[in-house]
Known about the structure:
Elements: H1 3-11, E1 16-20, H2 24-30, H3 35-55, E2 60-67, H4 75-97, E3 103-108, H5 116-128, E4 134-142, H6 144-157, H7 165-171, E5 182-185, E6 204-207, H8 217-229
Parallel strand pairs: 1-2, 1-5, 2-4, 3-4, 5-6
Helix pairs in contact: 2-3, 3-4, 3-8, 4-5, 6-7
Amino acid sequence: MSDNIKEAAEICPIKHIAFIMDGNGRWAKKRGMPREFGHKAGAKTFERVLDRCNERGIEAATFYVFSTENWKRSEREVNALMKLLEDYLDECERQIKDGKRNIRFIFLGDKTPFSPNLRKKMEDIEKISAHNTRIVNLAINYGGRSELTYAFNALAKEGKKQISEEDISNALYTKESPELDMIVRTGGDLRISNFLLWQAAYAELYFTDKLWPDFSADDVDEVIEDFKRRQRRFGGV
């Protein structure tokens, strides 16, 4: 890590950042390649961005990997995404066991629709990384409305008669993470697409036309600098 990044890591104002990784398919189409080619390129970008977030001292990073709506895509594309996920989980497990990354992985969403093999891999990685300090949330089969429904049902099962905002926050998939500071969306669309609906209440939003495979570590630095320039009033003056 360079001296500049070391210094920046000490003063980084963002504790929790989230990424909507949009544009893989369009990136591939521009190059006359199938959408799966874009997802492979996007996986490399994910690694670069994750490393820079760690270098900058960000405590938690959340990535929108696969939404509850993504099952509507072609069988070929879904299968390619599942294969990419499986390969990444295998590499992830190796790196955690080798002590190469101080990352605690948490999978946000309902694991039920996945194959028993994939579910076990996710559960194993959560267990073996539980002692690490940097949090990486991977939102897989995730939807903001589904998360809220999950939280309300969990609180109902506890017999809650009166539910507070704190109760809801503590029942969400992201309960282990700090409050969300910033959502970054690549690909040019200006919406959050059912992502972290509760957590986004006072999060800053950053939109870029760059397609996800073109997003770089330097872009993470620019997001942080942009965040520093914002005035967060949380409803105040």
